[in-house]
Structures are given as structure tokens and as C-alpha cells.
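User: Teach me something about this protein's shape.
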Amino acid sequence: MTRINSLPVARAYATRTILFLKDDGTLKPLAIELSKPHPGGDNLGPVSKVVLPALDGVDSTIWLLAKAHVIVNDSGYHQLMSHW
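Assistant: First, the predicted structure itself:
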């Protein structure tokens, strides 16, 4: 991830998602953690932010973008690992 984030036009987040299994068998995301490398170096650990669901305003847009990062990471992992 450090190599991607050192490019001038690209950024990538590592994601962790807490999901809740509902009675109807569907999963509902409760929280998403977005992590990126510390600008001071890997020895300082990642910089992380937890995003919670929101229905309106800027927070709802941030929530949608966080879900998009999760989907992209999951799709990339699936394509690489499942189809390799």
C-alpha cells in the first residue's frame, strides 16, 4: 500500500468492516475502518479513521465512499485470489 500511496494521483485504504447478520439473512455494515500508511514512515504505524453509518449531510457521503473502498478491496481480493 505504501507504493500506491506514494504516487501523486492515487490513494488506497486498507479496510476493516464490522457486519451484523440480520434475522432475514442479510448483512448490515455497522462500522468501517479506513487505514493508510503514516506519512512519517511505516515504523509509526497506520493512520486510521472509523466511519459510522449516516443518513444525511457530509457524513452520509463519507459513509458511501467508505463502503466503496470496501467493495473495491473485496472485489480486488476476490479477483486475485479466487481466479488465480
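Now, about its shape. The chain has two helices and three strands. The longest helix spans residues 57-82. If you'd like, I can walk through any region in more detail.
User: That's plenty for now, thanks!
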